Amino acid sequence: MAGERWDAIVVGGGHNGLTAGALLAKAGLATLVLERRDVIGGSCVTEEIAPGCRASTTSYIASMLRPEVIRTLDLGNHGLRMVPCEPAVQVALEGGEVLANWTDPARTRAEIARYSPRDARAFDEATAELRQLSARLQPMLTELPPDTRAGRLRGAAELARVGGRLRGLRGSDIEGLTRLVSSSLGGFIDARFTSPQVKALLLANNLYGKHGGPYQPGTLIGLVFHMLTGGDDDEQGFFGHVIGGMGAISDAIAAAGRGHGLQIRTGAEVAAITAAGGRATGVALADGTELGAGVVLSGADPKRTFGQLVDKTDLPEDFRDAVAAIKMDGPCAKVNLVLDAEPEVLGMPRGASPGQRALFTLPPSLDVADRCYDRSKRGEIADADELFVDCVVASAVDDSLAPSGRHVMTCFVQYVPYRLAEGTWDARRDELGDKVLARIGRFAPNVPSAVLARQVLTPLDLERTYGLTEGNIFHGDIRFDQLFHMRPVPGWARYATPVRGLYLCGAGAHPGGGVTGAPGYNAARQVLRHLRSARWRRR
Ligand SMILES: Cc1cc2nc3c(=O)[nH]c(=O)nc-3n(C[C@H](O)[C@H](O)[C@H](O)COP(=O)(O)OP(=O)(O)OC[C@H]3O[C@@H](n4cnc5c(N)ncnc54)[C@H](O)[C@@H]3O)c2cc1C
Question: How far, in Å, are 243, 257, 264, 341, 469 from residue 28 at the CA level?
């Protein structure tokens, strides 16, 4: 092959591709990251949405970035600064009240007890259970899932390894695991809580990105995920604002990688991953340039990687079918706003701290959320008074995002279809933006007239601009049949693919989506393991 040759090429400069690239460069491999956009970060990015005003256009809260990634790449010394969200979550309620979940349990208990002392006790109990379960599952995020297709000898070793994890489980862990797999978030909430206000607090932020109504089995997973540790101090249940927006995470990872010699090119779209004799040989760019590589890692999602970049004759048919069947389509959107006044949320206490003024969620009731999902499944946009919207006014805690007198507010919308039953997203984009503003206006009446700039990102925009197939924010739904040894598809959960020397390193691989850095971290370590054993075999 003519042209440059690299030890490793990473397709896609999302935060996972950058993490993988940085770790490979740190291990001494000549590594190149190729990003199709003019900016790195993928869905972990900060972009200017109006002159001088910058927003986390896609992901907006850091709750799951793995401490292993922060430490290994020394991200604190490469500009990463996260400040805890305080409160972690806050709901704005019908009737002009707010209810917050603080990091101080006593303060949260007192808030909840305003509505129901019984619910306050139940909240403490549920939190303790979820924390325990989450702590049990957490190590699995940066471990290889079991190889379900291993031969007899290795299969036995795999069983022993997984069995070892289960050995320490207590009876209450087993109950928790059973609930996790088989119950729904809605069922869990209804069984333990009575007050609609407290139910709203538990629904808020635990279904995001999920394809399924709150009563669908398996939806409890969001609550457990949010109890993972995060932040600089490995705190359980951490939610953080990233100073400089989410792009500061990607920038810090890139800076760490560059310090180890990582090369990053933007505006470099990969048109094909080349292979010969069943082995990856490099990539061909959209401009026709060919680059050779010892190994290729793809941080693009599985459908894009195997459906568009790899020649189908290099893949077994059953693998192609399994990839095509990955559940993706939607179901989220984002509306990013620049305001000339800070949102005045009804019921916000006088003298509320900047942290409290920086976030509020507008969850519908569980029943309405269920209906919203059903409507999105039918290709409909919910009515304004039913929309599930999560608002973060990041500029309240980070004055680097907007000049004085300007405020940046991002609004995540849960349950929006990728495929509309009627019309096109290009024709109906503003309808969604208008409905979101109408919904917010009921809880923060000054917002609609304070809008100076508005960016509406429909699922189609997430696909076109950010390269997320079918707009799926996790590169494949987070559901039990698409997790752990089943991710991206059964038999291929350990980053390697049917094309030798080609690895998956993005959110489509274990442990999945969210800004964790875990798939990139795990994939790089697996590549290095394979390279070491290949060298050892050649000796
Ligand atoms: C609207 C939205 C809100 C979210 N909110 C949160 C949140 O608050 N907290 C959280 O933890 N997570 C959130 N997420 C999820 C999280 O952002 C993603 O799961 C995660 O960022 C995925 O990272 P990644 O590196 O695996 O992939 P991506 O970020 O998708 O990166 C893949 C990269 O590959 C590039 N690429 C694709 N094809 C090619 C090609 N052919 N050639 C070159 N480059 C290519 C893409 O342009 C992209 O930059 C959100 C996501 C979205 C979209």
Answer: 31, 11, 16, 50, 33
The Cβ-side half-sphere exposure at 175, using a 13 Å CA radius, reads 8
Residue ID of nearest Cα to ligand 1 atom 35: 12
- 440 neighbors 331 (Cβ within 8 angstroms): no
pLDDT in tens, 255-274: 999 999 999 999 999 999 99
| Contacts of 150 by beta carbon, 8 Å cutoff, 6+ apart | 157, 158
Cα 155 to averaged position of ligand 1 atoms, centre (Å): 34
Span from the CA of 513 to the centroid of ligand 1 (angstroms): 8
- Joined together, the tokens standing for residue 170 give 């207590």
50 Cβ contact list (under 8 Å, min separation 6):
338, 406, 452, 453
The pTM of the whole model exceeds 0.90: yes
pLDDT band at 2 (very low <50, low <70, confident <90, very high): low
Looking at ligand 1, which residue's alpha carbon is closest to its atom 41?
270
pLDDT at 38 over 50: yes
The predicted-structure confidence for 73-83, as pLDDT tens digits, reads as follows 999 999 999 99
pLDDT at 1: 47
Which single residue is written with the structure tokens 């969850």?
A: 363
Q: Confirm if 236 and 498 have CB atoms less than 8 A apart.
A: no
* Ligand 1 atom, smallest distance to 270 CA: 42
Distance between Cα 331 and ligand 1 center (Å): 15
Mutate to test the pocket of ligand 1, among 19, 33, 37, 44 (most ligand atoms within 8 A of CB): 44
Which residue has its alpha carbon closest to ligand 1 atom 2?
58
What's the average model confidence in pLDDT over 321-332? 94
- Among left, alpha and beta (phi > 0; psi -120 to 50; other), residue 411 is beta
**Chain segment 139-187, per-residue pLDDT in tens:** 888 889 988 887 777 777 777 777 776 677 777 777 777 877 788 999 9
The answer to whether 339 touches 391, Cβ cutoff 8 Å, is no
By most ligand atoms within 8 Å of CB, the mutation choice from 16, 33, 43, 221 for ligand 1 is: 43
pLDDT at 423 over 80: yes
Q: Pocket around ligand 1: residues whose beta carbon is below 6 Å from it?
A: 11-17, 34-37, 42-44, 58-61, 63-64, 269-270, 299-300, 304, 309, 332, 334, 412, 462, 467-468, 473-475, 506-507, 513-515
For the CA of 65, the closest atom of ligand 1 is 11
Compute the average pLDDT of residues 268-289.
98
